[in-house]
From TrEMBL:
Protein's name in the database: Putative FAD-dependent urate hydroxylase
Stretches assigned to the FAD-binding domain: 7-359
Annotated source species: Rosa chinensis
The UniProt record lists the keyword Oxidoreductase: yes
Taxonomy, superkingdom: Eukaryota
GO MF terms held by the record: FAD binding; FAD-dependent urate hydroxylase activity
Keyword Signal: no
Lineage of origin: Eukaryota, Viridiplantae, Streptophyta, Embryophyta, Tracheophyta
Family from the record: Belongs to the 3-hydroxybenzoate 6-hydroxylase family.
Length: 406
């Protein structure tokens, strides 16, 4: 089995992990990505990328690979209790002429992975333990693999998702259950769906459903709501998931939405609980220690109500890559281990408050939109949230993470 030594080891080959590896490669650092799955993880089918994500993709040099996806210009939000429809301009909210684009998760991951060498990603790699070792006054991370292999890393970055092994080693509090779960999938119309490139949402009575076209033949759709009663498990079989949505949770939604669900590609369906980390655990938690840190969901899991999980992960990748890469270049193309604690600390302080607010805004957005049908909640949702708070939230989302000029 043996022992190997790497400059940077990234645990997790999702958006944050691959993005960080690409950012580091721009600086001349060949990171090793350890992914426990047998291939690229595409759970979730698709995701919406706002302007902040496109800034990050520009910096990573891969935005052109996803340019074929059409921006969504408007969001039509239907109140399920009253039937009233609110029209929200996605371009005005973002402060630019281009709205968010919803892309296949697989296409995004492949765009990132294609930038890396064939040996950079090691699939079916499962970690059994993490420890640190002092060497010449500096800390080295020791990663023990289930197959007996030992990897020594000058820098260890956890991008291993909500249930991160690395964040647990750092002592971060575990993410908590939001009380809601979400179904996600793709609908396929072989002859074309004929719908405009706009987002349609249906909210209220504890539910938040919607869809947005991906291509002229595919539609990304979702449904989130209060999870089944305590003790009841979420359906796992795709046919059962679709049946639950159609016959139970969404049976009274408009026919256009039910038709989208009916056209679901069963191979893309997932039903999972929505988790998040309490904001104060991010503010006061150890997001880095010595030469170890976290990014993406491993740092800041959040509910999907502002569609910022993947977007903020891409921000992390660029900013973390810039901090490590700058140190590498300034020290003559050498990763100086004793400087890594300070370098990672600067990355953490740059990210801490932004992601804390994203977690908070996302949770509030979900709570308001899926709230009850009482007059107070209706007033909060229709008069205050959509006409004031939502625009504030989306403007906060607008963010430029900067370039990777090494």
């Amino acid at each position: 089995m043996g022992t190997s030594v790497e400059d940077v080891v990234i645990v997790g080959g999702g958006i944050a992990g691959l993005g960080t590896a690409v950012a580091l490669k721009r600086a001349g650092i060949e990171a090793l990505v350890l992914e426990r799955s047998e291939g690229l993880r595409t759970t979730g089918a698709a995701l919406s990328l706002f302007s902040n994500a496109w800034c990050a993709l520009d910096a990573l040099g891969v935005s052109h690979k996803l340019a074929s996806y059409t921006p969504s210009l408007k969001n039509y939000v239907t109140d399920l209790d009253t039937g009233e429809v609110q029209e929200v301009s996605l371009t005005e909210a973002n402060g630019d002429a281009v709205g968010p684009r919803t892309v296949h998760r697989k296409a995004l991951l492949e765009a990132l992975a294609d930038e890396l060498s064939v040996h950079s990603i090691r699939f079916s790699s499962k970690i059994s333990a993490i420890e640190t070792q002092q060497h010449e006054g500096s800390s080295i991370a020791i990663v023990h693999m289930e197959n007996g292999t030992v990897i020594k890393a000058k820098v260890l970055i956890g991008c291993d998702g909500v249930h991160s092994v690395v964040s647990r080693w750092l002592g971060l509090r575990e993410p908590v259950f939001s009380g809601r779960s979400a179904v996600r999938g793709l609908a396929v119309y072989p002859q074309g769906h004929g719908l405009e490139q706009n987002v349609r949402r249906y909210v209220g009575s504890g539910r938040n459903a919607g869809f947005v076209p991906l291509t002229d033949k595919e539609i990304y759709w979702f449904f989130s709501g209060i999870s089944p009663a305590k003790g009841a498990s979420l359906a796992e079989d795709p046919e059962d998931i679709r049946k639950e949505v159609l016959e139970n949770y969404a049976k009274d939604l408009p026919p256009i939405y039910l038709d989208v669900v009916q056209h679901a590609d069963l191979s893309t369906l997932t039903w999972a609980p929505l988790m998040f980390r309490y904001p104060w655990n991010v503010v006061f938690g150890n997001l880095s220690k010595q030469n170890i840190t976290v990014a993406g969901d491993a740092m800041h899991p959040m509910t999907p109500d502002l569609a910022q999980g993947g977007c903020s992960a891409l921000e992390d990748a660029v900013i973390l890559g810039r901090h490590i890469g700058t140190s590498f270049v300034q020290n003559g193309q050498v990763l100086v281990v004793k400087k890594m604690s300070e370098v990672l600390g600067k990355y953490v302080e740059e990210r801490r408050w932004r992601v804390t607010l994203l977690i908070t805004w996302s949770y509030i957005s979900g709570w308001v939109q899926q709230g009850g049908s009482g007059w107070g909640m209706k007033f909060l949702r229709d008069t205050i949230f959509y006409k004031f708070l939502f625009l504030k939230m989306v403007k906060y989302v607008t963010y430029d993470c900067g370039k990777l000029d090494f």
